[in-house]
Write a structure and sequence with these properties.
The structure holds 2 protein chains of 2 kinds.
Chain A lengths: L9 E12 L4 E13 L4 E5 L6 H9 L6 E6 L2 E2 L9 E2 L11 H12 L3 H14 L15 H13 L6 E4 L7 H18 L3 E4 L3 H7 L2 E5 L6 E6 L8 H4 L3 H17 L8
Parallel strand pairs in A: 3-8, 3-9, 6-7, 7-8
Antiparallel strand pairs in A: 1-2, 1-4, 4-5, 9-10
Chain B lengths: L1 H36 L11 H13 L2 H33 L1 H15 L7 H8 L3 H25 L3 H8 L5 H39 L3 H11 L3 H29 L15
Classes of the chains: A alpha/beta, B mainly alpha.
Chain lengths: 268, 271
């Protein structure tokens, strides 16, 4: 058993991943013994230097990759593949180009067999929540990067996943849009009481959004810190950017990443 | 004023659009007319536009052209449908199953380089002289470009799209219906275009050798009688038929799908 008190919604237990790297012609150890527990309504970020395996970890949680050892439990049940209980938002948006905003957001509900009227109602609510009202009938290539990512978030939220997985979702949008999207996500996750597992290499972003930040070392990724971010909500950049506590969290995590792990890109 | 002005302007734009579409043909006919008026070559080797137009009208009046065109399009239609009906399911099967890919890929590669026309001798032996043999050759010509382009399309489907819908609860059937099929549509359309184009080539070649009807035969026959204007009539009939198919069927499909989705554009002007 891991943590005894709170009923963990998501547990990653001793997850290890080694995969064959064809360009190197050898096995690479990406993750070593990663154990994380996420409680209901918690916003947890995983950060670490590039190549530390944080995205691999998220993919294993999503069921898109299999761990070499260890297991993922969602509400006590082991993960054997991808499923609607772990909806994922990707850096590349991954909206279906042949579906309008509305059809993309309704898509998961359609797969679930939700009747048309109900589908439209739920999709409408989430399209409204992410601020895309008026863009329901646009195709993704007519939306800006930020709008596409809003649509992708609405698409996953509409299915009401047990855990929302996000893989560097704001890495491809411009800096100003990114801050707005971060504020919106923080507000939505708080309002919807969404449980989120968020992967990023941006330390500020992790601190801004999270209740807890898990730090992975350089390759192979091991957990070197698990920090609770005790900052009040709601969080907005205008207030937080200069906040002493915020800056303190950011500096501590920065030091951890630069000193705590094995050398970046190092190979065990 | 403004309310009336906008539709008028649009109408003008479409009329100008038609003129712009006709311009290349007008230029082509003008150059042709000038060349034939210069009489550099004997009439029988280089018929004038007027002669061709007269032959065209005569062949329509006599019913020869509509009959031959009908025969040819019937063979092309049947050949295309049969060829595509085998190639499309096989393409998705090979694209989605490693075992079938490993089995069929060597066979397909072996047969791919053999031109449809190389099947003429067997086509005649199996089906006798006539449109049956021609149709068989068209099947063989349509099959490979459709299959090859479809396979390329399947290989190019972005994995992230599949993964994204899987995390929304999509199973295999939903992935195929909502991701793989629409994602392969641009390449499938290219395959269909090439399939029809290859089909036309084999149609004409096949009819010249293996048939006594059809546009290809008519072109061949006109040459025997030095009716060079009728040769051009046959050639133009093929070109115009293709143009109509492209404008009436293929382009509207592309405009409603791949172009609307932003997967394909008319061209790249801003370079």
């Amino acid at each position: 058993m891991t943590m005894a008190a709170a009923p963990d919604l998501l547990v990653a237990r001793n997850v290890c991943k080694t995969f064959f790297e064809p360009t190197r012609g050898e096995d690479v150890e990406a993750l070593r013994d990663v154990t994380v527990a996420v409680r209901p309504h918690e916003f947890v970020s995983v950060i670490g230097p590039s190549g530390c395996g944080k995205s691999t970890f998220l993919r294993i949680v999503a069921g898109l990759d299999r761990p070499t050892a260890g297991e993922i439990l969602v509400e006590g049940r082991p993960v054997v593949g991808p499923g609607a209980d772990r909806g994922m938002v990707f850096q590349e948006y991954a909206l279906l180009p042949w579906k309008t905003t509305r059809a993309n957001v309704e898509f998961g509900l359609r797969l679930k067999g939700v009747p048309r009227g109900e589908r439209a109602r739920i999709a409408g609510r989430f399209i409204d929540l992410v601020g895309l009202t008026g863009f329901e009938n646009r195709y993704p290539h007519h939306l800006s990067g930020g709008m596409r990512q809003r649509a992708a978030v609405a698409r996953v939220l509409a299915v009401n996943p047990t855990v929302l997985l996000m893989d560097e979702p704001f890495a491809a949008v411009d800096a100003m849009t990114r801050q707005r999207l971060q504020e919106e996500l923080a507000a939505i996750a708080a309002a919807e009481r969404t449980t989120v597992l968020f992967v990023t290499h941006a330390i500020e972003e992790a601190v801004f959004l999270s209740d807890r930040v898990v730090v992975l070392s350089g390759r192979p990724g091991r957990i070197i810190a698990d920090m609770t971010i005790a900052l009040p909500r709601p969080r907005v950049w205008a207030a937080l950017a200069q906040d002493a506590a915020f800056v303190d969290f950011r500096e501590r995590l920065t030091r951890l990443i630069h000193t705590g792990g094995a050398p970046v890109g190092g190979h065990a | 004023m403004t309310v009336a002005a906008i539709p008028l302007r649009r109408l003008a734009a479409t009329r100008l659009g038609w003129l712009a579409d006709l311009l290349p043909f007008a230029v082509g006919v003008a150059v042709w007319q000038i060349l034939s008026a210069l009489e550099i070559w004997p009439r029988v080797l280089f018929p004038s536009p007027a002669e061709v137009f007269r032959a065209f009208v005569a062949d329509i009046r006599s019913g020869v052209l509509p009959f031959n065109l009908g025969v040819s399009l019937r063979s092309l239609g049947i050949g295309f449908v049969v060829g595509a009906a085998i190639a499309v399911p096989l393409g998705y099967l090979m694209g989605l199953s490693r075992a079938s890919r490993r089995f069929f890929d060597p066979l397909v590669n072996l047969l791919q380089a053999i031109p449809g026309l190389a099947w003429i001798p067997f086509a005649i032996l199996w089906f006798g002289l006539g449109q049956g043999a021609v149709t068989f050759i068209i099947v063989m010509s349509v099959f490979f470009p459709v299959l090859h382009n479809l396979l390329t399309g399947i290989r190019m489907v972005q994995p992230v799209l599949i993964e994204a819908v899987q995390t929304l609860g999509a199973g295999r059937a939903a992935v195929i219906a909502h991701v793989i099929f629409p994602a392969t549509l641009p390449n499938l359309m290219t395959g269909i275009r090439l399939g029809i184009a290859f089909g036309f080539r084999s149609l004409v070649g096949g009819e010249m050798i293996a048939s006594t009807d059809g546009i290809g035969y008519a072109i061949f026959n006109a040459q025997q009688y030095f009716q060079s204007a009728r040769i051009v009539v046959g050639m133009l009939a093929i070109g115009i038929t293709w143009l109509v198919m492209d404008r009436v069927v293929l382009r509207p499909i592309e405009q409603r799908t791949t172009m609307r989705w932003g997967l394909m554009r008319e061209g790249i002007e801003r370079v």
